[in-house]
Amino acid sequence: MKQRHWLNFIDGKWCDSDARFELLNPATNQSIGTIAKASVSDAAAALAAARRCADSRLLSSVRPAERVKWMTRIAQEIRVLADEGAHVLCAENGKTVPEALDEFLEAARYFEYYGGMADKIEGVSIPLGNGYIDFTVYDPMGVSLQIVPWNFPVSICARALAPALAAGNAVVVKSPELSPLGICVLFEAIERAGLPDGAVNLLCGSGREIGSYLAARREVDQIVFTGSVPTGQTILKLAAENATPCVMELGGKSAALVFPDADLDQLIASVRMGIFFNAGQVCSAMSRLVVHRSIYDTVVSRVEDLATGLSVGNGADGNDLTPVITARQLNHIQQMCQRAQQEGAVLVTGGEALSDSQGNFLRPTIFKDVSPEMNIAQEEVFGPVLVIMPFDDEPEAITIANSTAFGLVAGVFTQDLNKAMRCARLLRSGQVFVNEWYAGGIEVPFGGVGLSGYGRERGQEALYSYVRTKNVAIKVAGE
After folding, report:
1. pLDDT for 131-177, tens place per residue?
2. Nearest 10 degrees: CA dihedral of 208, 213, 214, 217?
3. Topology of domain 5-250, per CATH?
4. Where's the Aldehyde dehydrogenase domain (predicted)?
5. Which of 316, 344, 389, 475 is in the most buried spot, having the most CB atoms within 10 Å?
6. Which of 92, 99, 106, 249 is catalytic?
7. CA distance 138 to 432
8. What is the reported pTM?
9. Residue 269's closest CA among 298, 292, 302?
């Protein structure tokens, strides 16, 4: 990818700033370009533009069919730029080009999906008897602040931005410092669609500086955040000062329960995607495999064969396991692996970086004989590290799965539908996969409980996070 300097997008214009971030390819740790580092004054300008657009009702007062047209044009323009964007995302994020391309195509799907709902946000009539007319309407929240993570920056940006625009909100996006360029390409597509100035604004700046500034502002009507638990807790404290409603998608430590009648070929395919896709840098990763003792050794052996057979290297070369985002994150994961062994976990394979690479590569890592109280079984790793834990009966499996403070997703592998349904009811999570990790899609609601956050994204349910219900009650004269 040719080096260039990228800009922020404020009030319909691409804007530079005095400071900048240098961006590194995690597969090589070589520079791929720079981006303007937004300041507090830039953040204030973006917020003022969004506030002005929201207050003007340019988005919300038009016939909803016009918003449908905007959303459709955005989706079309994303598809036009998808190939270019995929190479940019591959270089800054480390994932393979096909995976990066899928991310842009998924972003287009979000705009198509919520574009189809923009003219269907309908209230209800409530019967109060003779003499009254009563009905509800849905007003847009106003200004939505959306703070996007680095692991799937384009698709996660789109999954919040699309429903917000469909409902008639103005938006300020705070992009991740580590992986902002794909979102810039996304905004190039949005710019081509011709939305009113101020409808969408993009800032790349320090989370501690401009993220905190924006989250504390009364002009913000809603905050949507995806990221780590500590950062989410900081944002919630700032939002509490103004009682700003939030949608929080935080971390996970998700478990898959594997019963003796599980289809092991199906399971291994899910392990491949569940923990090694995107180098395990997925909030809903399958980070714990909880396996019935009767098939425990067999599963450990099958998973070891999978892990040792994966190619590790640059995503641009089509490798199976791509780099983690930074050298710092790589070091953090290795420290967690060392602690796991000190606590008694048995390392099956991996646990160390590639010694002959300049990039941030960790070998696919498997631990067995892990007990629920170990740190490696409780804390999110955010890397290609799987722990395998045994159980003897169904209640014990549920207890182990529910033993962390997180509750994002969970999985059940069995041919017994009754058992799957029993487990699904008892698992403490926002989503349960049965016999396929990542089953579902953008049409289904997504979100967690506990330290995994609250509120839902994706699906029809998410749209109602971006509106306020207003009731109108009328006394009819003469009745």
Report:
1. 999 999 999 999 999 999 999 999 999 999 999 999 999 999 999 99
2. 150
3. Aldehyde Dehydrogenase; Chain A, domain 1 (3.40.605)
4. 14-472
5. 389
6. 249
7. 31
8. 0.96
9. 302
